Amino acid sequence: MNTFLITLLVIGLVFGAMAIGVILGRKPIGGSCGGLGAVGLECEAGCAKPCSKRRARLKAAEAEQQH
Asked: What are the angstrom distances between the C-alpha of 52 and each of 13, 55, 59, 65?
């Protein structure tokens, strides 16, 4: 029973530390190879509802292509 409680406490501390990292706005965990952006496959399937940062990048890219 002691082992279970210690394990539960350690897992709780790890989750708490990760939550603090998210709250403080730290960079999210990324892949060791840079993810799909490193190979030029950023959202190839097409996002039905892209986030605001992605929409801003898409608008900037469209504006750049028009000039």
From this structure: 32, 5, 11, 20
Spatial contact of 48 and 55, defined as CB atoms under 8 Å apart: no
Q: What's the pLDDT tens digit per position in 6-53?
A: 999 999 999 999 888 878 876 666 666 656 666 665 555 566 677 788
Nearest to 31 by CA among 41, 22, 23: 41
65 phi/psi in degrees, rounded to 5: -70, -30
Q: Is the pTM of this model over 0.85?
A: no
Look at the chain and count its residues: 67
